[in-house]
Each structure stands twice: as structure tokens, then as C-alpha cells.
What does this fold into?
Amino acid sequence: MYRKLSHLLFSLCALYGASAQAAVILQYHHVSKTLPKVTSVEADTFRAHLQYLQQHEFKVVALDTLLNGLQQGQAFDDKTVAITFDDGYDNNIEQAAPILAEFGYPYTIFVNPALIDEQKGYVMTWAELKELSKQGALIANHSSRHDYLHHRLEGESEEQWRSRIKADLTHAEKRIEEEIGYSLKYLAYPYGEFDKALQEVVKELGYTGIGQHSGAMGPGNDFTRLPRFPASGFYADLDTLATKLESLPFALANIDYSDTVTAELRPMVTLEFAEKGFHNKQFACYVSGQGQAEIKWLDGKRVTVQAKQDLKPGRARYNCTAPSLHKSGRYLWFSQPWVITQDETNRGNSQ
It folds into this structure.
């Protein structure tokens, strides 16, 4: 009886400990009212997001503080947030930086060094990035030129592809270190797209890979495919963003699927839970553009998730949620991203 009680208490502590190490990463691109709405948020809306974080007592931390802490087993408040921007657009320094300074919030900008070196007019200069870095912003890798990194060139062998991608990422990282003075080895995948081979390259280089599929994160996440919640365009609405900010990660022991980039039109993912903090009957998954997915429980801790209809070529997601048993009013959240290709011969295309 004593041993059973001890095991129960240990399990409950593990569950509460996992939720106490939850965090959310927000992703932005433009802060502008004139650029494409799908990747933009207006300054007033962006300020409203930050006001919400402040008023609801979220802890906004630097990305390196969060990632290093989670990897080292550090406990964070389960209302912890990191703020990121992709591409290094000039409106980040013109519009976003002054608003962030008002709140004293740290943030990270993922940049494409080759585009900066070519002095493209829509991205910040190295001098501007240095200034933001002095003010506390982190500057990190978004690949050299924002290419589809998983795309194999025509006639390119797997080894040639690996060599090309390693050269691309290490060159970008070197330029950041030369100009800014440090190397974080964080990679935000361009377009949020990656496959298993790219994850392996990222791991071999000792980098952390960050996507743009939604979800909360914790110490059990795969650090070659960390989730972020997009907060621009359609996703900028505070009514829905508020729920996402409160989300918690599922305690997953394993995620099994063929590959993220796939010619399968109804790809399947099998989730195995290390601990259960929800009721099976409340677990639901949704397919982008379709509605609910087909789910089948294999046993108490393993479930398969699959689209009921064929997915169209391009990016898609399965988003899975369930009400948390231990945090009233909050949801566990997991997202599986896909890139559906036309067929195996053009694997990697994402038109």
C-alpha cells in the first residue's frame, strides 16, 4: 500500500513538474499596417499583445534563458513567454523595437546574413542589428538566404545536399558571430519547413531547430523541432491568442511518423504519452482546412492521428488539444506540421 501511494505521489509530482516547465514562443514577422496582412501585425495590435502579457502577469524571458534553462532542467513559471521575429525586416527596428522597449521585454530576431550582405532594402543592416543587440535583442540564424532547406536540387545526391546545407548554415552563423559578436546556434527553419534529414543535420551541427507549427514547449520537446505560435495576420486576434498563451505541452514519450515532408496524402502520426494529464475522451485533433481528424487509441497511452480526407499539396498541420486535469481552464497542445509534395520525384517542393 505504501509503495503504491509513493508511486502515485511521484507520478503527480512529475505531472505538476512538467506543467511548471511549460513555455510558449511567439513568432512575428512585420509590424506594419501597409505590408501583407498574412505576416503582419499593426503597431497598435502589437502593443495590445504586450499589454496583455503584462496585465496577465506573464514572464517574458530571453530565448537563450528559456532554451538553456529547459535543457538544464530549470523550472519556469508556467506562464513564460519568449518573443521572436523572423527575417529581420526594417520595420522591426522602426516599429517593433520602440514598443518592446516601453515594456522592457527581450526578444530574438532571426536573420538571413547573405541578404544583409547584399544590402537588400527591406532588411535591417548589420549596424542596425548591432544597435538592437546592444539594447538586449538576440540575433540568430534563419539560414543564409531563406531557401527551402529540405529541397534537394535536381541531380543532387543526399551527401551533396547535406554538404550544401551545412555550408549554408555555418556560413550564416559565422557572419552573425563576426558582426554581432556571438553564436547562439539557434536555427529558425525558413517557412517553418523541415524533414527528418534536416533535423539530423541540425543536431550534428549542435544547433537548436525552431519551427512555426503551434504548441507549447517543455523540457521533453525535441530541440530540433521546437514549436512557436504565429501571432501575426489571422493569428493576431487576442481572443484566440490568449488561449494559446495559456497552453501547456503534452508529456510525450515518442512521436512516430514517416516524415514531415511527404507524398502521403493522409499521413499518420502516432503519439505516445509519458504521462497522462487529460481524459482520453476529451483529446481532439484538427486538420488544417478540414475539421476533426480521425483518432484511434491503441492503448491507454498511444493514439494515432490521421486526416479523414486527402491533404492538398503544400503546408498542413494536425493540431491536438485536451483540457488539462491539473490546470483548470488551460489546454494541452501539440502540433504536427506537414509539407505535402506532389509525388516522390519532387520531394522537397512546397509550391
